[in-house]
Structures are given as structure tokens and as C-alpha cells.
Amino acid sequence: FNATAANPIVFDSYTPNWGGTAKPILIEARTGFNLFGIYDPYEADHDEGFTLRNLDLRGSDDGCSGTGQWGVFAYNDVDYVNLENLDISGFEIGVFSGGANKPLNPGADSQNQHVKLLNSTIKNCSGQGFLGGGDFLTIEGCFFKNNGFAKAIYNHNIYVSNGDHVIVRNNELYRSAIVEGKANGVSLVVH
Questions:
Q1: End-to-end alpha-carbon separation of the chain, Å?
Q2: What is the pLDDT of residue 48?
Q3: How far apart are CA 163 and CA 34, in angstroms?
Q4: Which of 79, 85, 117, 125 has a C-alpha 20 to 30 A away from that of 57?
């Protein structure tokens, strides 16, 4: 990629010539496929500068308990990823900021850094609303609802697994891990 934090690759809505205002709907309902994959497929090689905003990402046509794997997957040393004003629904995992394979070159540190999930709605994801971590991770101003319903105890609205300087604030978490009509898991887990 030729993107940088100052000059990112941007996926954004636009105003159509007929004057509509709804967010564009992007669907990936195939089992085992991610809608947005921001990663190198093998060894970690540093990449940065990605923005997704004002989009409706769905793992099924109706955005409820679909078969799409992950809405957004950032992996293998991806930095400065901004996810803003998104509606994410019907995936196994809404947003996954994963780890990394061994580094490909000295410029890679095998960590995702500066990932921001802001002012978004993540709902009806069977596993996790957000999973993963990274240094300087921010999850702020988001609404999480009905995530983690596929399995009791181990699924959550938000599961932060690692990172330094992590900020999770001003979010609303509602109905986490509802299995057989009962809440069977906590909404927020941080390790």
C-alpha cells in the first residue's frame, strides 16, 4: 500500500445524484469471508493509513445473524486505522484487530497501533462486537447491542485482549451474550 497516516486510503459514502442520504450498504454473507480485510497475508509488513466511514456493513441481507465472518479485520502490523460512523451487523465478529505473524522486515513491529473505532453501531454479531487490541487503541462513542449470542460465557460486546494506552469510553453496551433468553456473559472484557 502507498498510504500513510497523513494520506490514508479512504472508503466513505457520497451524496448520490438523486439526493439520497442513507449510508451505502455493503454485504459479505459468505461463510469464512471478511468484508474489509486490512492485512498482509503472510509475514507482518508495516502498513498504515486506512479510513472507513459512513458505511453500513452487513454479514447478511437483513443485518441479523448472518454468515459473514468478520466485518473489518486488521492484522499483521496495520497502524492508523480509523473506523468512523459505521453500522456493522450480522457478522461473527464486527471488528477484529488481531495480532501478527513474524515480521518480514526491520520496519515491522508485529503490532497494530492507533486503531480507532468511533461513533459506530455494532449489533447482532454472533461472536464478538469488537475483538482484539493494540497500542493506542480507542473505542469511543459506540453503541454495542446483542453481540455474542452464539455461545455462553466466552462471547461479549467488547473483548480487548492487549495493548498499551487503550481507551474505551463513552460507549453503550446492551444485551451481551444472550443465550436461551439469559445473559450468559459479561459485556466488556479487558486483559
A1: 32
A2: 94
A3: 24
A4: 79
